[in-house]
Amino acid sequence: MPRILGGIAALLVGVGLVGSGTAVAVDDPAASGAPAVGSCFAVTAGEAADAWLDQAPVDCAAPHTAQVVATGMLPPPLTWDHPQEQLLDVMSEQCWLALFRKVGRNPLLLLRSQYSVIFFGPDPGQQAAGARWFSCHAVVAEDDRLGELPNPLPRLSNRLPDSVAACLTRKAAHTTCADAHAWRSSYVFFARGRTTQRNIRLMADQICPGRVTTPRWSFTWVDVPGPAYVMACYSQTRR
């Protein structure tokens, strides 16, 4: 689950390069073509992997799968000709921080949600004209697609709506609870110790039975910086 690892890691280490709220003049060619913060789009899972977004925004009251939470600018000396890995690192870190500002930054509650981020840059024509912006979009990840977002975006809490809350499918794939699922997140906690299979299983057996609502239960875990990891306990559902 790279999106969870990236999100929690970004939150805990407090990354920050250039603030994604960098002010630019309206007629600045570096900002030309950037979508408005708060605008919504009907992005598919396939389009989410594209370098730029070739579609018009939709009304946020209509079905949509992505909402712009910030626009950022490539910090000098980076240009669009730099290695893709460097560009993706900058955009990913700034976009996760923008999502945290929008919905909250509690790492445990983040793991109980399916929130993620995607980001787009200018198209080739806009780049040639000097555009340096990138847009950060909040999304919720389902097992094989992007889910529809509620409007407005709910902040992180223990009572997230199904459209945002984290569940598992019968095949243990992460999805929203609005999608078909077999397990629902009931409890998330920090665990300390080495992340060996034995230690993780012992920790799950110690904590999860008292925190779930069904005799059968499941668990997941992710590494985070430092001598700790995050574990989630899931109750079985019939949906």
UniProtKB/TrEMBL annotation:
**Keyword set, alphabetical order:** Signal
Q: Where is the signal peptide?
A: 1-25
Q: What is this protein called?
A: Septum formation-related domain-containing protein
* Annotated organism of origin: Nocardioides agri
